[in-house]
Amino acid sequence: MHTAISYLYGFGNHLQSEALPNVLAHGRNSPQKVPYKLYTEQLSGSAFTMARHLNLHSWLYRIRPSVMHGEFSLLSHPTLIGDPWDTRHTPPMQMRWNPLPYSTSKINFIQGLFTFAGNGSIAMHTGAAIHLYQATCSMEDEFFYNADGDFLIVPQEGNLRFKTEFGILDVIPGEIIVIPRGIKFQVHLHQDKARGYICENYGLPLRLPELGVIGANGLANPRDFQSPSADFEERNGNFQLLVKFQGKLWHTTISHSPFDVVAWHGTYVPYKYNLNLFNTINSVSFDHPDPSIFTVLTSPSAIPGIANVDFVIFPPRWMVAEETFRPPYYHRNIMSEYMGLIHGIYDAKETGFLPGGGSLHNCMSAHGPDAEAYNKAISTSLKPEYYANTLAFMFESNQAWQLTEQAYTAKFRQQNYQHCWQALPIQFQREK
To answer: What does the pLDDT look like over 334-352, one tens digit per residue?
Structure first.
């Protein structure tokens, strides 16, 4: 397994891996005669003419080229939805959901995708979508790639094995995996069920945020990101290749496993990251900084400083600020926030916000701690405190998250979310 996914921080250094010796020893990307009589294939995740430090591409040395498949046809999927997004089911109020219930039938990762919300345009390569996933069986004879965007996958329950063209990555809750656009993969279960969250990014590829005045160290460290080692398989059979393209699911037949890449090198690869390695930056005097200091990965927009989508976490951390209100203060902001909880308790909502659940606070929708958390925060004795039992995250976008009808009408949506603030008392007193 390789570490330090270099393209995240823009140096453009190449990674490489080979499952057999001397595949990459020829010194040419596509020589006339490839070792082991393999085929060369370039996979580009950016335009050819992007600046060198942003140019994402990899060379794959494979047994068969990817062109060997049948004709594609549409495949019905009851809960996978693409744009154009519809605002009819997106009121300007705060909303919260319980975890997605598990299916009573056997479904794999792709069959269990549930589109929750989205924004922007697949065709224009802007915006993002939020999906929930569940699975009760592994993918065996199906392979999948997403032509619309990158998948940032956040497991909440159940360990997963991702078999990809580049090799294998095992991921557990508390870790994330990013499968860039176009890379084929399968998902296998280590237990009898699994579920979690997905941010599908249509915009610029995810990267590490700039550190600014933080300096050289802090937040996610590039050396802690891991990519797979080449691990090819030779398997023939009657398989399906599934593709998400322009918001629809397509399928075709394929007579071999596409995981036949014997070696690869480049800057465009799947990668994983352990969220426990995030170096949290926090206040040591008074007040707490904006939640941007918890950003793990960001997809920039065309406007500097405004994200197409950010992936932000709220991990275990020390709270030591004095004479201050420690939970997130009441706020309204231009960015739109979808929050999920991987495990534990979120300090601003100690009841009602469940692991596997989610909340949505769209642009200018007021939010903050519920009455219980507020009363606890203003009455407690402030001393150094370690928030141990928590791991929440946020998909934050510069565009409003537009709900799908199935998310808005879901039986697992909480109908009384606003009630958590109604017990806040009027405490105003005029000076005498």
So the answer is: 999 999 999 999 988 989 9
298 with 270, same domain: the answer is no
In this predicted structure, the answer to whether residue 286 has a pLDDT above a threshold of 50 is yes
Full domain range(s) for residue 17: 2-95+103-275
Residue 432 lies in a domain: no
Binned at pLDDT 50, 70 and 90, residue 13 comes out as low
Residues in the chain, total: 432
Q: Are 219 and 278 in contact (CB under 8 A)?
A: yes
Number of domains in the chain: 2
Amino acid sitting at position 149: G
pLDDT at 9 > cutoff 80: no
Residue 138 and residue 187 in contact, taking contact as beta carbons nearer than 8 Å: yes
What is the Cα–Cα distance from 341 to 355, expressed in whole angstroms? 5
| Domain boundary, last residue among 247, 275, 303 | 275
Which residues are tagged catalytic? 288
275, 292, 320: which is the final residue of a domain?
275
CATH number for the domain harbouring residue 136: 2.60.120.10
Query: Are residues 263 and 120 part of one domain?
Result: yes
Q: Give a yes or no: residue 360 inside a domain.
A: yes
Cβ(224)–Cβ(274) below 8 Å? yes
- Same-domain status, 392 and 250: no
What is the rounded average pLDDT for all residues in the chain?
94
Q: Is the pTM of this model over 0.85?
A: yes
